[in-house]
Amino acid sequence: MKDTQKLPIVSKQVLIPFILVTSLFALWGFANDITNPMVSAFKKILELNNTQASWVQAAFYGGYFTMALPAAFVVKKYSYKVGILVGLILYAAGALLFYPAAAMENYFFFLAALYILTFGLAFLETTANPYIMAMGSEETATQRLNLAQAFNPVGALSGLFVAQTFILGALQSDNVDANGNGIYETLTGTAKAAVKTSDLLVIRNPYVGLGLFVIFMMILIAIVKMPEKKESDSSTGMWRSIQRIFKKERFVGGVIAQMFYVGAQIMCWTYIYQYAENLGIDNRRAVNYAYMALGIFLLGRFLCTYLLKFINSGKLLMLLSFGAVVFCLGTIFIEGLGGLYSLVCVSFCMSLMFPTIYGIALYGLGDDAKPASAFLVMAIVGGAFMPILQGLILDFGGSGYADTRIAGVPEVNFSFILPLICFLVVALYGYRAFKVYDLITKSDAN
Q: Which residue spans traverse the membrane (predicted)?
């Protein structure tokens, strides 16, 4: 294996395409984090229980599972650029569907709009991740992907800012009286209907604006010449590729680890609002803690990209996974602000995980990386069903967050046992990556 410290992470020849594709990482990060607070927002506006509200994430991340494999077929048959353009069209369509959804005031129409929006995100992630890895040496692919992924939380921070400033701060259903009690629940039918209509329009507008911006990005990428890696032979049919990749434990383990990681990430970032609310912190102020989480997540991304020059990626993945387990224990068993800060700190440990699991799983797959990438994106479905499981725990004693105590702590605290378990699975994959898979790779090289 070449000395990765001497190889450029990104060459000058592909710098402009690299910047454009990297901007897509910020674009789907924006969508992710403008949507996370919507679980709590829809719960209040439409008076849902925790399980019903969690279907926002089921719709959002379910779209990844549905469309990732079709995206791989499109990319394999045509090109990376075509895959990106199709993704941007679907992304824009889903965002613009918020306009009729708000007009109809129908929760399931909103869910359908999110579902279609993430068809586009599935195309973008299935395409952009292996495309970034292909823009240079395979030895620096994981570093290059970590660098590109570092801009994902930049978009996420922007999404949080829009959510806090233009949505959560403007929702009338979140207003409280002088004693801190909700006003919305006490309104008459007509007054409540008026607030509902107003609040759904507040949610609609940023998504419609996002859809228009995505159309602009689509036009920009359409007119720029993008590099395209030619397949090395004609024997790389989709079915044959799938048969080959599922014989590789390194890849299969990566799919499993990715599913558990994404589930953990979405639970930690979605239910930070409920955790904070149980401490008497309203949604708009709770966004500040989400800012902290994303801030250290961003810091961790850049730091870990540097550390990967010196530390085995699997080993670093394992160490940070164990760190996440420790912070999850603090989230569960420390009641008060200490537990909330522990939850924030989990994000530092998560910063490395997605791109590193991705890079480890795809290493050495060559042209098979395109369909393999689709299955890694399908693994994002962990973000669809795991928040529902956490919502079920929160509904044990009622729709509140501390209706009952489990293992001596409020149910909202105990619910973070689920991400803790997920991080243990990721730690196991990291351990096998540097103790088993890397040894096999070195043996094959010799």
A: 55-75, 82-101, 107-124, 145-167, 207-224, 251-274, 286-304, 316-334, 340-363, 375-394, 414-434
Q: What is the mean pLDDT of each run of 10 residues along the chain (446 residues)?
A: 59 84 91 84 86 87 87 85 95 97 94 95 88 80 80 86 86 70 78 91 94 95 80 58 88 95 93 92 86 90 85 93 98 96 97 90 80 86 87 84 90 96 97 76 40
Domain map (residue ranges) of the chain: 12-228+237-445
**Strand (E) or helix (H) holding 443:** helix 438-445
Cβ-Cβ contacts under 8 Å for 54 (sequence gap 6 or more): 39, 270, 387, 388, 390, 391
Phi-psi region at 60: left, alpha or beta (left = phi > 0; alpha = psi -120 to 50):
alpha
Q: Which residue has the tokens 């002088």?
A: 178
Q: Cα dist. 98→13, 91, 162 in Å? A: 40, 12, 16
Q: CA–CA separation, 446 vs 440, rounded Å? A: 10
The owner of tokens 């991400």 is 419
Q: Is 55 exposed, middle or buried (0-12, 13-18, 19+ CB in 10 A)?
A: buried
* Residues in a beta bridge with 182: 176
Dihedral angle sign, alpha carbons of residues 231, 237, 239, 243: negative
d(CA 277, CA 281): 5
Distance, in Å, from the CA atom of 101 to the CA atom of 162, rounded to the nearest integer, reads: 20
Instruction: Give, for 410, the enclosing helix (H) or strand (E).
Output: strand 409-410
CA 65 – CA 122 distance, rounded (Å): 8
Q: What is the CATH number of domain 12-228+237-445?
A: 1.20.1250.20
